[in-house]
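[Archive record]
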Amino acid sequence: MMRDAELKMCGLLGARFKCACGREHFIPTKQVVVENEAIGLLSELCERNGMTGKCNLLADSTTYEVCGREAASELRSSGIHPHEIVLDNPRADEKTCEAVISLANPHGEFWLAVGSGTINDIAKFVSTKASQPYAVVATAPSMNGYTSSIAALTVGGLKMTLPANPPVFVLADLKVLCEAPYELIAAGLGDAISKPVSNADWMLAHIFFGEHICEFCLQLLSHAEPLYVQNASALKSREPTAIRALMEALCLAGIAMTIAGSSSPVSGGEHLISHALDMHASVIGRKVNLHGAQVGVATLFSVALYERLFELDVRKLNPYGLAQRYTALDEWITRLRRFFGEVYNRVFEQFAMKYPASQDEFLRRVECAISVWEDAKSMLCKVLRSHDELRKALLEAGAPTKVDELGINRGEFREAVMLARTIRSRYTVLDLASELGILPDELDELMERSQI
C-alpha cells in the first residue's frame, strides 16, 4: 500500500490554503512517496497525475545505473515512452540547461528527473521553461530542493536561485536512499541542520528591513527538526527510519520555500558561504564540494557568530566609531575581482543593492541595529539552536564539522566568510556582524570558537 510521507500528515500536499498572515498558497506537489521498491509505483503515480504519453527522462551516468534504467523500463511497461537523456558529470548551469533542451524530444509532454541536486535543478528549470510538468525519482537524501519552487543554477558565473515549478510528485525508493554514498546522506543532514540559522537570518531581515516573514513556515521547519536532529546517530548506520526521516524533513524544507516564494526560510549566511566557496572553486580550479557538507560547517560558524553577537553589550558600542570603518562601495571591486574572477561585476551589482550608499546611511543603520538589538535577541533565540547541539548532531552522523574535512584551505574559507555577503542582496548575520565590528576583527577567534 502506498504511504505518502510526513507531508501528508501536515495536510500540505496538493493543498490550497491561507496563512495566518492572510496570504493564499497552493502546493503543486501532490505526492511524496518514500517506500521500499517504490520504483514499481512510478507508472501508477504518472497515470494518477495525467502524465502519460511521451516524456523526457533526465539522469546522470551514475543515477541512470542506480535506478534510471529501471525507471525507464517501468514507464515503458505501462505504455509511457521515455526519451532518455544521460549526462556525464553535469553542472547546474545555463550551458547545461541549453544542452539538455537541445537533446530533448520536442514531442515530450512531461519530464522525469532521476537523481538528486544537480539533476533536479536542471529538470526543474527546463520543464518550467517548456511549460511542462515534471516529477522526481530521488536517489539520495542529500538536499532540500526536491519540492521547492526554485532552481539553483549558476548563471553567468553567479550562483542564483531562479523561480521554477515544483514537481508533481517525488518518488524515493527507500532502499536506494539507504544505499546512497554516505557523503550524500551526510550532506543532506548538513543542509537540513542549517534551518535554525537561516530562520534567524530571515527574522533578522524582517526586524531590520521589514521583509515579510511567514510564521507558518517557521512552524513547519520547527516541526521538521526532530526528524533529523533526533535521528542523527542512526544515519551513520543507514537505518531506514532515520533515512526516511531525513528525506521527509528535506521535503518539508522545500515546501517551506514554495510557501514563502523564496529560499529565505532555508538559506541564510551559511548558504552564502557555501555558494561563495563554489564560485571561488571555479576561479582557482578546485573541485567543488558537496553543497550540504559545506553548509553544515558554515552553519557551525554562523551559529557561533550569533552567540558572540548575543554577548555584546550594545550600550557600550560607539556608532560614530563604527561608522569610521565605512568604505565606499567602489573600494570593494579589487577584492571581489580577486576572489570571484570574471563574475565580480555580477557580484558587485548584488552587493550594491543592500550596501549603505554613504557613511551617514551606514551610521543610521548601526544606530538602528543598536536600538532594537535587545528586543531582536529575544525573537532570534526562539528559532536558534545552540552551537553545541548542532555540532553534536553532525558529529553523531559522521558529517563534516571542520574546514579541513572539506579539503579547503582555511585562508580560502576565511575569505569566503568575509565576501559571502556580497553575492546576494539578502541581509544576514554576516552583514550585521560586519556592521557592528565583529567581522573581520574577531574572525580567527570565531573560527576557533566554532571548532571548525
